[in-house]
Specification:
single chain; 495 residues; Aldehyde Dehydrogenase, Chain A, domain 1; Aldehyde Dehydrogenase, Chain A, domain 2; five-stranded parallel β-sheet; globular
């Protein structure tokens, strides 16, 4: 029988107020994995009331004690890593090696956030007055709304949830409707680890209903969202009306520069992994490769040869290199962009088609790994986020032109350069407009102890992971302690 899942509100699994449900499909087989409750605004209201009660208990719990819950959760995640990875491949589609990495990332950030429970550093400084002590402390925001995407069904929710919990907040969590079961499993693990009722509340459902209700709820003090630029702009506008904290991570159009002095073997492997890992469904995916004209023909020929032998199929099969895309709508979107690229005058070297289920024996949402060349920097396929296995080759004649092309986009998330020239490597770090730059490595592969996020259209200044993760979910309070036993007036002349 298909498993049915309910909402988590105040520590109780409950039906939604709408009485409606939706299915969770395996994108490789189209098998129905689960039935989920479609929540509504009333459910968000109930969740917020439960979270307000949970916040009082949780925020008053010492941070090292909060951390103990996270440490226990991390150990449970470790124990169930393989089962969670298999479930993730079934629910999201990416190959098993990658889903194991997704779970490992959740383990890593959970341990990292737990460690922050004994840090939560403020600052101490001197006062301009005698017998006066000055410091800062970090305080939780309160009830926060976390809205996660489908492409990293445990890692990204963990990036948001664990620091928010370590900082003492209570949570209303909306997972992506394409991958809700992994999020439910994560929440179940937190409850098993000892998280008090009401501290995390989970409401499944559509972004247009549940997500909107979370963003607009007057008692939710902060929003953390990962998703599209258009939705992020709307969220920022809504949150500005109530002066809410809002943290946004909104995608990218990430370039890899391959210079004429690069190790081409290394660069080739990096471009393949960056472009076609997770079927191109990463905000950090390599969607543009900027080739120096001196190595363009050789690199393109080698890239083409390697792309031809990539094996597309069910991510549970060990021979599979590239899994399905997440759903039919995404499949159709990728196909539209291929048509746009051809109409703009780019040359389609390989791929460009959905894979026929009848001819291939693959019933799900599969798309051929696709490479365009003769791409101009201003073409739509070089400017807009496709979120699929589509790579654009752009040719340049100099390092300076490569930097100009790399920066010629509204996004600024990840970037990479392959070069043996140290000067160019450090110049790229300085000049590329991105929150992340890799040297001689692909655009994917972030580690949890470094901040993750971007600039320009990618984000609004906050970062996930690293020490910035705690800052995302806290306010800084300045504290003055005067032990002079008299009234002292700062900045007032006393002479």
């Amino acid at each position: 029988m298909v498993q049915e899942y309910r909402l988590l509100i105040g520590g109780e699994w409950t039906d939604s107020s709408t009485g409606e449900t939706f299915d969770d499909l395996n994108p490789a087989t189209l098998e129905n994995l689960a039935v989920l409750q479609a929540g509504g605004r009333e459910d968000v209201d109930r969740a917020v009331e439960a979270a307000k009660k949970g916040f009082k208990t949780w925020s008053e719990t010492p941070a090292p004690k909060r951390a103990e819950v996270l440490f226990r959760a991390a150990r449970i995640l470790q124990e169930r890593k393989e089962d969670l990875a298999v479930l993730m491949t079934q629910e999201m589609g990416k190959v098993l090696a990658e889903t194991r990495g997704d779970v490992q990332e959740a383990i890593d950030i959970t341990y990292y956030a737990a460690g922050e429970g004994r840090r939560m550093f403020g600052e101490t400084t001197t006062s301009e007055l005698k017998d006066k002590f000055c410091m800062t402390v970090l305080r939780p925001l309160g009830v926060v709304g976390l809205i996660a995407p489908w492409n990293f069904p445990i890692a990204i929710p963990a990036w948001k949830i664990m620091p928010a919990l370590a900082a003492g907040n209570a949570i209303i969590f909306k997972p992506a409707s394409d991958t809700p079961v992994l999020s439910i499993k994560l929440v179940e693990i937190l409850a098993e680890a000892g998280l008090p009722p009401g501290v995390i509340n989970l409401v499944t459902g559509s972004g247009g209903t549940v997500g909107k209700a979370i963003v607009q709820h007057p008692d939710i003090r902060g929003i953390s969202f990962t998703g599209s630029l258009e939705t992020g702009k709307w969220i920022m506008g809504e949150c500005s009306k109530a002066m809410k904290r809002v943290s946004l991570e909104l995608g990218g159009k990430n370039p890899v520069i391959v210079m004429d002095d690069a190790d081409l073997d290394l660069a080739l492997e990096g471009v393949l992994w960056g472009a076609f890992g997770t079927t191109g469904q990463r905000c950090t995916a390599t969607s543009r490769v900027i080739l120096h004209e001196k190595i363009r023909d050789e690199f393109t020929a080698r890239l083409l040869a390697k792309t031809k032998i990539l094996r597309v199929g069910d991510g549970l099969l060990p021979e599979t290199d590239v899994g399905p895309v997440i759903n039919k709508a995404q499949l159709e979107k990728i196909q539209r962009y291929v048509k746009i690229g051809e109409e703009e005058g780019a040359t389609l070297l390989i791929g460009g088609k959905t894979i026929d289920p009848e001819l291939s024996g693959l019933p799900g949402y599969f798309f051929e790994p696709t490479v365009f060349t003769d791409v101009k920097p201003d073409m739509r396929i070089a400017q807009e986020e496709i979120f699929g296995p589509v790579l654009s080759i752009i040719t340049v004649s100099s390092f300076e032109e490569a930097i100009e092309v790399a920066n010629n986009t509204q996004y600024g998330l990840s970037s990479a350069i392959y070069t043996e020239n140290m000067v160019n490597a450090f110049k790229a770090i300085e000049k590329i407009e991105a929150g992340i730059t890799y040297v001689n490595a692909p655009t994917i592969g972030a580690e949890v102890h470094l901040p993750f996020g971007g600039i320009k259209g990618t984000g609004n200044g906050f970062r996930e992971a690293g020490t910035d993760a705690i800052r995302e979910f806290t306010e800084v309070k300045a504290v003055y302690i005067d032990y002079s036993r008299k009234l002292q007036k700062a900045q007032i002349d006393t002479d």
